[in-house]
Amino acid sequence: MIPRLFVRRWFQPLCQGASLLALNGYVAFFTTFQLYQGPLKNICLPVLNCHSCPAALFACPIGALQYFIMTHRLPLYVLSSLALVGITLGRLSCGLVCPFGFLQDVIFKIGSVRIELPRWCRHIKYAVLFGVVCLISYVFAVPAFCKICPVAVLEAGFPLALHDPAVSQRIFNTSTGVFTGWLFVFKTVCIGVLLVASASIKRPFCRILCPLGAFLGLFNRYSLLRLDVNRDACTGCEKCARICPVDLNLMFDANSAECVRCMKCTACDHVKAKHVFSFFRRENNV
To answer: With CB atoms 3.0 to 4.6 Å apart as the test, which of 99, 125, 182, 193 could cross-link to 214 if both were Cys?
Structure first.
């Protein structure tokens, strides 16, 4: 049995930190200045980690999905692999693996003002998934979400501009001293707003804009990994809601599409995860 204190305070950040290093382990870029193009780049892991990040070893599933859509080919590989993860683990990768989720969690700990998102905001990410990722990419044959993705500018745009003079010249014209890449400026503003908002709002990008979270969340109610709440023994202390990184109250919807499966709520005696992670079981739970 894993101690509840460890589950609540250390299990999630340790998993997130380890995944950050594993996903972005291509340190050779800093000597060769060439992106990794080995066999691992053909693998899409269920996390939003930019394909063009200098240290990235794997492909971004949303970028790969858009590539198939914009070339008018059926994205069977991407959809089937993501669906397999979704039906097995739900949004577990959002809670324990995603590097950008990790960054938002860290920033939130720094802030002092706390703001709750209106419930309707959670529907925006589905519009991003179907409208931007699918429809616009198909009609205009461009990777639409990649063009505006704030994660891309943080993980790829800034590092590439710092290391590649050709990229930095396109972004900031060193001869005239003015910005020439207005799309880059727009994405920089977006990532700035998101990072500032993360100090007061729990995971704003994951809950409002992330198309990958929207897709995986569709499977939460049917995934093999499920959260069970012993409602008969619940005291109504709302401890699970206070420690939840997406402000869920498990008494009302333990397997909501918004749940990122971070497992923090299993620190409560009356919440347990079933099936895949049986080591979270509590003897006094139903």
So the answer is: 125
